[in-house]
Queue: 3 jobs
Job 1
Amino acid sequence: MENKIEINPSDFIIAATVGMRRAVDILRRGWERTGGNSHPDDAVFDNAILGAVAEFIVARMLNLHWEPKIGENTKGDVGGFVEVRCRNTRSGNEIGIHEPELTDTPYVLVLWHGGFNFEVAGWVRGVDARERGVWNEKRQCYFVPRPYRTLDELCALRILRTEAA
């Protein structure tokens, strides 16, 4: 499965609109719903928009439903069970996992290379962060470096979950 993605502008606009609505909701609430997210106000729009675009990309790649949630801090960004993280490559290329997220949940990392260029780096289970990650006191999370599991492995997990249901 190809991990480098150039999203087309029309799809980018669809997902970015969701991100923009999320950013407005976050600002309106004053960050109360972020569950430990500690980004400064000037990053709200960037983070919300890129996060929504990353979710859109992962949903398409895994052929899973994407519910464009606004104002909800529920688990399962994609398909009801996959969490998605997006990072600008200028800020790092590791998955950030917070203490309450140390579960069997899969966390997919999408890297933004600028413009419409993204890369799905892979995924880890939240529980793997304690063993493989490096604790960051300022951000209050574990940053897990590469290597990550492949999307093909996550596709297989999705199929197993579907068959078990």
Job 2
Amino acid sequence: MRSVVLKYVRRTPRVIVAEGFVRSESDPRRWYNVFVEIDRRTCTVLHARCTCDDFYYRKRLCKHIYALYREVTKYGCAP
């Protein structure tokens, strides 16, 4: 069963912008909408957004953002 489904990925010379759905580990019927913008030179997250409570209330990078980041960068992020 897939835990990450990509909605779109846009690669430019400077950034990778991706949005997708990440499945909750505690409730497999629930999916979170996640957005990341990644700097291609340093492979770091510039902006991120998630619909989970942890990110919404605490403004911390959550495991859903990390899951989408790993899926998008598993083939590298070099320009």
Job 3
Amino acid sequence: MSDQKEFSEIEQMRGLIEQLNSYIQTYHGGEVQFVSYIDGVVKVRLGGSCIGCPLSPVTVKGWVEGTVRQFFPEIKHVEAVE
């Protein structure tokens, strides 16, 4: 018997985004939170210093989507929601 817990795809995705959030909070003062994953689209909410930052689209597409896609290549894209 194995005591290891199996995590759903959404739980794994949420955990990955939480790890990104920790880094973004520590080094940039911003936040990224998992909102949902439906039909191949990952939705996240930005906060902290990401609000109003002109580089927020780069954070979402380049950093968050790029990282998530490495582990979940089947996603269509990541988008920020209010």
